[in-house]
Design goal:
Oligomer: single chain
Distance between the termini: 113 Å
GO molecular function, one term: actin filament binding
InterPro entries: Kinesin_motor_dom_sf, Myosin_head_motor_dom-like, P-loop_NTPase
Shape: elongated
CATH class of the domain at 5-138 and 174-193: Mainly Alpha
Keywords: Actin-binding, ATP-binding, Calmodulin-binding, Motor protein, Myosin, Nucleotide-binding, Repeat
CATH topology of the domain at 5-138 and 174-193: Methane Monooxygenase Hydroxylase, Chain G, domain 1
Protein name: MYO1B protein
Family: Belongs to the TRAFAC class myosin-kinesin ATPase superfamily. Myosin family.
């Protein structure tokens, strides 16, 4: 119920994860259709980059202003920090405060004077500013880290490497917010190099109990997790896409013209293959470098045909091998019979 600095940075991390989810699913998928020359009607979705910028912008972001308050001389309190937020973020559409210059919140009794509210992608969250400055300015003084580094216990010494006299840094230690921001940036950079799979968890109720399904709660989560936009893009788009070369290599045994070898461009081979299989034209589209299949049932059909064809080919190979083996044995027996007969006639 009471959200402070800890919940603020947790929600900031959630915003960044939602942003990379948007980048790798909604945005990237629609851009791929455009790159491949597929006819496509753009589907609108909410991009939370504006919220991430509100929090992490180096000049006007909330974390930057919090660091500035922690580092500036003079009297610094949580109220001065909130006053600074009101000056800089007053007109931002996702920031709300009773002290803000935006008069539409002056009569909002649900928002106390010592709080501000951010409209996150998953809904509005109110934060109490009490403790923001102290928690962000959570410093380990240099003399304490040096004292711990001098301990005889190897584990304690390893926990405080900054106390090593050879690594003394006279700069002010980074604030908790800047450290968390750097960690999140490293995480995002790592995720961008991967091919992640997403699992969205939906809570059926707030009681953590079985056999209780709260429709309103589930609909709220589906709406704010961006699942509706994702489903709309998936249903309007194509369930499967693959480069022409591996697609032809996988399914070429289904067509006499492409099996065992296709002489020509891979795209032309895929076109011949799909025409031979009489797949409806609305079920697939040819991109510049990929084949796009709309319905999973079409892909399942291809896989079933391939499975059956592999069984037929295996039977054919087995049949030819058995015939070769029997003929080889027959020719060997015939040769042996001729030798035996010739020696018998000579003896007789």
């Amino acid at each position: 119920q009471d959200n402070s600095f800890e919940q603020f940075i947790i929600n900031y991390c959630n915003e960044k994860l939602q942003q990379i989810f948007i980048e790798l699913t909604l945005k990237e998928e629609q851009e791929e259709y455009i790159r491949e020359g597929i006819e496509w009607t753009h589907i609108e979705y909410f991009n939370n980059a504006i919220i991430c910028d509100l929090i992490e912008n180096n000049q006007t972001g909330i974390l930057a202003m919090l660091d500035e308050e922690c580092l500036r001389p003079g009297t610094v309190t949580d109220d001065t920090f909130l006053e600074k937020l009101n000056q800089v973020c007053a007109t931002h559409q996702h920031f709300e405060s009773r002290m803000s210059k935006c008069s539409r919140f002056l009569n909002d009794t649900s928002l106390p004077h010592s709080c501000f509210r951010i409209q996150h992608y998953a809904g509005k969250v109110m934060y109490h500013v009490e403790g923001f400055v102290d928690k962000n300015n959570d410093l380990l003084y240099r003399d304490l880290s040096q004292a711990m580094w001098k301990a005889s216990h190897c584990l304690i010494k390893a926990l405080f490497p900054e106390g090593n006299p050879a690594k003394i840094n006279l700069k002010r230690p980074p604030t908790a917010g800047s450290q968390f921001k750097a960690s999140v940036a490293t995480l995002m950079k790592n995720l961008q190099t991967k091919n992640p799979n997403y699992i969205r968890c939906i809570k059926p109720n707030d009681k953590k109990a079985a056999h209780i399904f709260n429709d309103a709660l589930v609909c709220h989560q589906i709406r704010y997790l961006g699942l509706l936009e994702n489903v709309r893009v998936r249903r309007a788009g194509y369930a499967f896409r693959q480069m022409y070369e591996p697609c032809l290599e996988r399914y070429k045994m289904l067509c006499k013209q492409t099996w065992p070898h296709w002489r020509g461009p891979a795209r032309a081979g895929v076109e011949v293959l799909f025409n031979e299989l009489e797949i409806p034209e609305e079920e697939f589209s040819f991109g510049r470098s990929k084949i796009f299949i709309r319905n999973p049932r079409t892909l399942f059909k291809l896989e079933d045909l391939r499975k059956q064809r592999l069984e037929d080919l295996a039977t054919l190979i087995e049949k030819i091998y058995r015939g070769w083996k029997c003929r080889t044995r027959f020719l060997l027996m015939k040769k042996s019979q001729i030798v035996i007969a010739s020696w018998y006639r000579r003896y007789a």
